[in-house]
Design goal:
Length: 252
């Protein structure tokens, strides 16, 4: 692969192997509320800071050569939050899409909003669809914004679509058919899953796709997630021994 000077400097600084960059990084962006609370500020202050951290993560993934960044932005369970917080998040999303799309277009970012978009306010849905159309030709990096997303709901929808169009012989159905029925159909499974804020749970995220993903639980809160945090995860990932149920080379 071709490596730019800036990329090379970052790889060197963090001990990253340019030939083993993960293609797909998934993130559970958690801890905005606690970040704000620590500063004696309302939760929404943390969400604004979280928006900036995602912008930075996208920039840093692009710099490091990651091809897919999949960010858990609003879950099917997040509707349980107070109405005022949900309304703030919907408004924040609208503003962010409006303000960020022109730059993403220039930077070669393709965007996908994945989840049950029909459950979102109509205006936001329309904006999601036009942003996806506008950035569709881009190929440098794909940003997947998981919105009104729940993994069980995604699998349920996948099963429904398979049942509507079943193969002649049910026994020919494969794992790949299931992968292809999900929102993430056209991308590789993530090599890395990062959860910030120190919570040891998956919260209904990518249950099918993370079967063999390397998991990183970081203690830092999402608004503090920076290049150092991301680069260290990638460097550590490259040192892990991914066995997929087999043995390491030296043992076999
Ligand atoms: C993640 O931060 C953002 C969303 C889930 C929308 P939180 O809002 O969950 O922050 P904490 O977990 O309360 O600190
Ligand atoms: C997961 O975070 C969802 C998103 C980051 C969008 P939550 O804060 O909603 O997860 P729980 O409630 O702690 O499991
Ligand atoms: Mg949380």
């Amino acid at each position: 692969m071709s490596v730019t000077t800036k990329q090379e400097a970052v790889y060197k600084k963090y001990g990253i192997d340019a030939d083993a960059i993960p293609e797909h990084v998934a993130i559970i962006m958690d801890g905005n509320g606690r970040w704000a609370k620590k500063r004696l500020m309302p939760r929404n202050f943390g969400h604004n800071a979280g928006r900036k951290a995602l912008k930075l993560a996208l920039k840093n993934c692009t710099l490091l050569g990651v091809k897919h960044l999949t960010a858990y932005t609003f879950s099917t369970e997040n509707w349980r939050r107070p109405e005022e917080e949900v309304a703030f998040l919907m408004k924040l999303l609208k503003t962010a899409i409006f303000e960020e799309v022109p730059e993403m277009k220039k930077e070669g970012v393709r965007i996908k909003f994945l989840g049950d978009l029909t459950g979102l306010p109509q205006e936001l849905q329309d904006q999601c669809h036009s942003a996806m159309a506008e950035l569709d030709g881009n190929t440098r990096i794909q940003l997947n914004i998981m919105l009104n997303y729940g993994s069980r709901n995604e699998i349920l929808n996948g099963v429904k679509s398979l049942l509507k169009n079943p193969p002649q012989d049910i026994d020919t159905l494969t794992e790949d058919d299931i992968s292809k029925s999900l929102y993430t159909a056209d991308m590789p499974d993530p090599e890395i899953l990062i959860r910030t804020s120190g919570e040891y749970r998956i919260s209904n995220y990518l249950l099918w796709q993370i079967a063999y993903t390397e998991i990183f639980i970081l203690d830092i809160l999402w608004p503090d997630f920076d290049l150092e945090a991301l680069a260290n995860v990638i460097a550590q990932y490259q040192k892990r021994d991914r066995r997929y149920g087999g043995l390491t080379d030296e043992d076999s």
